[in-house]
Amino acid sequence: MLSFLCCLNSPKVLPTLRISTLKENVEAFRRITIQPRILVDVSRIDMSTVILGHKTSAPIIVAPTASHQLAHPEGEVETARGAAACNVIMGLSFMSTCTVEEVASSCNAVRFFQTYVYKRRDITELMVRRAESNGFRAIILTADTPRLGRREADMNKMISPRLRNFEGHTSTEVVSDKGSNLEAYAAETLDPSLCWKDIAWLKSITKLPILIKGVLTGEDAMKAIKAGVVGIIVSNHGTRQLDYTPATISVLEEVVHAAQGKVPVLLDGGIRRGTDIFKALALGAKAVMIGLPGIYGLAAKGESGVKQVIEMLKNKLELTMALAGCCSVDDITRSHVKTDKERFLCRM
């Protein structure tokens, strides 16, 4: 398991032309230093937090990622059980290979549902309503995909598993002789006209709170709050959309300042260690999302692997908090970290 996680620190895991952003998502954390406090009673460490009213054992959410059956035969069901065993929230992808109902019935846990908006709005509405009726607690709108980014690693070799959520509702069989089948499917289905006013439409079809994923600027954070979302996820889509976007940790503070405490801000991208979680919390994130680490755990050992990955991150976060002099996540403040920009200014 450790060897799987170690290889996550190398951009060679996904050898594509988006390597610059992929590498930067991870490297940017290394340029942030931790400023510990000494002689603090840390005999008891509490990592628990509350996210949108739901208490969780740690500020960690399993990010919604597609097609888990590519990693394990039981797919998202195993991921859900691993997250539930650790008492953390899981995000289920719109493009999951297990159905909403299968995941909902697999275990008792808090789950959020991630959605895209299709040209056929009735498909998106159906999926959102299915999630709500099956006990999901929030909707995550992915807003950075009007078109699919150029994913060279997928071209001509992408294996497309069955998207069983859509069976009987829309075709999932799109074959193209140019590029990848995934790209062709996205071009046929995703709605490139999606804009801020459409959040009102999404709110009209569900009673669930809506978070928006894909925010990288303070400007968009303010627009998101004005549109009525209850949470913001700072994300560059795991670097799978636009290359040369900033590392998410490098823009987190800008988004947090723009949000002004009106809604929680979550960070997605580049999390590989407990120290990364600590740094994100210090810069204002309410919690972090983990994508690749969970997938690697799933591929290695199924439910047990997902659980091991989460527990490794929790254990390292707990140790970091103890050594930094923080007894709870609320004790982690901006003064506990220094960015490379701050260190540069100090030398001037």
Describe the structure.
The protein has 348 residues and is α/β, with parallel strands linked by helices. The chain contains twelve helices and twelve strands. The protein has helices spanning 2-7, 19-30, 76-85, 100-106, 121-133, 181-189, 198-204, 218-227, 248-259, 274-282, 292-324, 340-347, and strands spanning 33-34, 49-51, 54-56, 60-62, 89-92, 111-115, 138-142, 210-215, 231-234, 265-268, 287-290, 337-338. The strands form three sheets. The chain has an eight-stranded parallel beta barrel, surrounded by seven helices. α3 packs parallel to α11 (292-324). The protein is globular and about 60 Å long. The model is unreliable at 8-17 (pLDDT under 50).
Features of this protein?
348 residues, single chain, eight-stranded parallel beta barrel, alpha/beta, globular, 12 strands
Brief write-up:
The chain has helices at residues 2-7, 19-30, 76-85, 100-106, 121-133, 181-189, 198-204, 218-227, 248-259, 274-282, 292-324, 340-347, and strands at 33-34, 49-51, 54-56, 60-62, 89-92, 111-115, 138-142, 210-215, 231-234, 265-268, 287-290, 337-338.
